[in-house]
Amino acid sequence: MNASMLPHILFSCLLLSVQAQNCSVREIIRYTKRLLVSGSMLDFNDQSFHFQSCLCLPIAEPGHELACFVEGTEHMLKNNISTAITARLNLTFQTQLDRHLCESLARGDQCRYKTKGNVKEFLNKILRTYQAINK
Questions:
Q1: Any signal peptide, and if so, which residues (predicted)?
Q2: Does residue 116 carry a pLDDT above 90?
């Protein structure tokens, strides 16, 4: 490795670290996993958690994740799905969207999606998205 490349590499690592911190990656991953675990402890046919029934939550297209995560968590809150954790996730997503954090997930403030899914599919989309940032 060339010594002149070292400052560039360190700066790139710093930028990635700041982006991950601004995106609240660890917090979102932790809360999403908690929701997935609490849902798996219930019978998947239990209408109170809607794992099998389709709430028809948006499965976002790349670049529109934040807007869809806001929309989806708002829909979950309206249906009383794990309200405390869901409310925290919703607030975090809304803050990221409003403050233009996690820019790769928010090319616009409109939710764009091709498919919709149930709560489990929606939560797995959130988890995969933030785990990819965390790498």
A1: 1-20
A2: yes
